[in-house]
Amino acid sequence: MTRYLLDLELDGRGFAGTQVQKNQRTVQAELEAAVAGLDGQLRHVRLASRLDSGVDAEHLPGDVELSRDWNPAILCQALTDRLPPDLAVRRAAVVADGFNSISDASGKTYRYRIAFRPVRPVRDPRCWWLRRLDRLDLLQPCADLLVGTKDLSGFANLRHDDSDGNDPVRRIDWARWTIERECDGMRLTFRIAGAGFLYRQVRGFVGAMAAVATGRWPMDEFAACCADGRTAAKVGNVAPPDGLCLEEVRYAPEPAWVVAAS
């Protein structure tokens, strides 16, 4: 038996999240069906992150044990050939028997995109469309308040399970906004990196920062939410999943990735 780490790319619009759910189409269920077709029996695939319905991923790792040895490049292509068009295995690596794609991860980076313009985006709908943002100058100062090791559970929806337990403290390494001007508005991109995130926390950050930028909430209330932990009063609403993408999950050291065979 050999354990492999698979690196997935997915369009989240057709999935009810990543984890298996009864009578729902999920990333884990699709991947496990493809693995079973290849390996001849059902194998559990452990995914590094639990993503909501509608959330995309450029790089979502998952580990699985297979009964035979595979060239990782061929394994990528063989699994992708058995997967639907909105899910693919970009690369793979052989890892140690005890490797755990969740607990061995050293960090994650998420991206959130906002289209700030008068009319809704048509060609690229994977974003949150907003018509009003009066205080763009406050977005980065809000993001700066998130950095550090602290309890920011006021922006999250705690599950009270092993994903947050009794310790909602997380380390945020950096958080940055970039703005690209377009003919009729702007394209805003928020990126955030850290050791881990609580349930819906990134979308909570974005929703709260957007509320400050629209003038609906004052900056000092956002700062109070950063300082008050579980007792924090909610600022704004959770941003929709449309603009969120998991960019990467990092490991130290990185596995010996092999891209799919051409």
Structural class determined from secondary elements: alpha+beta
How many DSSP helices? Answer: 5
Round the Cα radius of gyration to an integer and report it: 19 Å
CATH architecture of the largest domain: 2-Layer Sandwich
What is the domain total for the residues? 2
CATH superfamily of the largest domain: Pseudouridine synthase I, catalytic domain, C-terminal subdomain
Shape: globular
Low-confidence stretches: none
Summed over residues and divided by their number, the pLDDT gives a mean of 93
Q: Which CATH class of the largest domain?
A: Alpha Beta
What amount of the residues lies in strands? 25-35%
Ends distance: 26 Å
Largest sheet composition = 11 strands, mixed
Range of helix content: 10-25%
Give the helices and strands as they follow along the chain.
EHEEHEEEHEEEHHEE
Question: Might you state the CATH topology name of the largest domain?
Answer: Alpha-Beta Plaits
Count of extended strands: 11
